[in-house]
User: Fold this.
Amino acid sequence: MHKLFLRLAIISAAFVPAASALAADLDVPPPPPPVEELRTATYDWTGGYVGLMVGSSCIDGRLYDNTAATQWEMSGCGWKGGALIGYNHQMDHFVLGLEADWSRTNKVVKNTDPGADFSFALDHEVTLRSRFGWAMDDTLFFVTGGAAYAQGNLDGISSPIPSNIKGKHWGWTIGGGVEHAFTDQFRMKLDYLYTKYKGDKYEDGCCDVDVHDFDNHEVRLGAIWAF
Assistant:
C-alpha cells in the first residue's frame, strides 16, 4: 500500500510542471470594460431651442358679403414662413415639451369670380402647443396640440378700390411630425398641423363681410438650434 501511494505521488509531481507550462502558454483574457463603455450613447433631447420654418398653408372656408348679400368660397393654398421657440424634457424614451411659433403667409386665397375679386392672407399666426414624443436615439416622433391665434387680412371685395380689412381669429390646433438631430446643436423637423379657426366680422366704411369658421392645413419644415 505504501508503495502504491509513493508511485501516485511521483506521477502527480511529474504532471505539475507540464500543467504549469500549458497554463503559461494560454492567453490571459482581457479585463471587462468599464460600465460606462457598455452603455450605448444616446442623444439628449432635454433643453431649449429656437428655429426657423417654411411651409405651405391651405385654407378651406367661406365668407358672406353683407353689402352684396352674397356668399363666396374662401379656399386656396399658399406659402408661409416664421420662427419658433421651445423646450423639451426627456424621461428615458419619453419627451415632453412646450413649443410656440409665429408665422405669416402670402395671399393664400385668391378669388377672382365676378363680383368677388378678393384675396385673403394671415398677417400673423401664433400657436402655443404641448408636445409628446418618443425618442429613438437622435430621432424623435411626436404629436402636438394647443391653442392658435391669427390676424386675417382681407384685400378687396365689394369695393372699386381694394381695401385691406383686418380680422381676428382664435382656434385650436393639433398635429404631429418627426425631428432628427444631425449634431448636438443642429436639428431639422417636418410636421403637419390642422387648425380650426373661429370666424370674425370684417368691416370698414365700404365693406361689411362675415368670414365664417375655417380650416387651415399646414406642412412645415423647420431648422432648429438647440442650446
Confidence is low (pLDDT under 50) at residues 35-40. Helices lie at 2-25, 35-38. Residues 158 and 207 are 6 Å apart (CA to CA). The first helix runs from residue 2 to 25.
